[in-house]
Amino acid sequence: MTLDIMTAKDYYEELTKDPPLKSGNKHIDELLGGGLRKGLVHLFIGNQKTTTDILMRTAVMAFLPQSKGGLGITTGKVVYIDGNNRFSPYFISQLSLSQNLSPQHILRNIYIARAFQWTQMVEIVEEKLTQMQDVHLVLISGLTSMFQPEREGKEKEGRLNQQSFDELKGAIQGIKTAIKQSNPIVVITVPKHDNSIHKPFGGKILSHFGCVAVEFFEQERRTDYFLAQHPFIGPKRVTKWNRITDQIKQKYTKWYLDSETSLADCSAEPKNPKNQWKDMMQTSLQTEISKEVTRLRLKEKRNRTNSKGQDNKTSNMSLDHYLNYLKKEKR
Predict the structure, then answer these.
(1) Does 307 lie in the same domain as 209?
(2) How far is CA 199 from CA 42, 118, 121, 202, in A?
(3) Mean per-residue pLDDT, 15-30
């Protein structure tokens, strides 16, 4: 038996010879240079709602032909290991219909395993996953969501239970075995560590295992996708701007009305020089609204039609348009 050694260029060509699998999220696909690829372990770090949505979309996209960004799965399997208990067959059916696919066929070929305890997650990944054959895609939702290492007494406060880390190593070894058997695309989602902005819950062992690491930073008005690690692509960031929800709309409506009232009441110079209400409100409006409006003008230029109802118009407009709408309504 001979040991083949290839150059880094040959290895890159080997990985990129097949078209990538689209995740169903255009921001993720843009970040990863087209989508998910075989031979790489993709680690998504962030909120379980966002990451679970991406996993379910990816599961459906895998059944599309390669010409449409899928894997062209006909007889193979998609394995979905759910540690967040958020898998929805109804959402899978809706996604299937949106892609002109048969929901029955897709649901029959997605194999689900749910874990409700950390020991169950380890058993599924370390043992059950390695028993599966002809697997094209492995999706693990919340690998370390239930990973809660116990402390070993006050005298060792700050040190984590070694047994839990050994179990995590065993789970990772199970994933490696599955890769050797079927060479599937692997996507793992994990939450962020409570005491870190970037560190995944599970430590460096997960960071080193994942060839590709994508972090999610969610804010009120936008979500930032940050590519922190990739063997062929440098770090970069993509921003998704969120539409205004009813809650955000109420917040800015109250903010706008309160600021207008405060500015009207402060038309005269205040007797107390320390009570600079007018300057404070003007500064607040400038720093908190104007800067965001400037960004929204660049990101959210949309054409509106007059045929839309007033409710639909206000629910879809950007923050800049919505504030102008409030001014017109007040007049």
Answers:
(1) no
(2) 15, 20, 21, 8
(3) 89
Whole-number Å distance between alpha carbons of 265 and 267: 6
Q: Give per-residue pLDDT as tens, 186-203.
A: 999 999 887 777 778 877
Which amino acid is it at 268?
Answer: A
Q: Is the pLDDT of residue 154 over 70?
A: no
Residue among 101, 104, 109 at smallest CA distance from 80: 109
pLDDT number for residue 136 = 93
Q: Backbone phi, then psi, for 62, in 5-degree steps?
A: -65, -25
Enclosing domain of residue 303:
246-330
| CA dist 193 → 83, 182, 190, 197, 200 (Å) | 16, 31, 9, 7, 5
40 and 212 in contact (C-beta within 8 Å)? yes
Domain assignment present for 153? no
Outline where the chain has alpha helix (H): 8-16, 26-31, 48-61, 89-98, 103-109, 118-123, 162-182, 204-209, 246-265, 277-285, 291-299, 310-316, 319-330
Asked if residue 78 is part of any domain, the answer here is yes
Q: List pLDDT tens digits, range 116-126.
A: 999 999 999 99
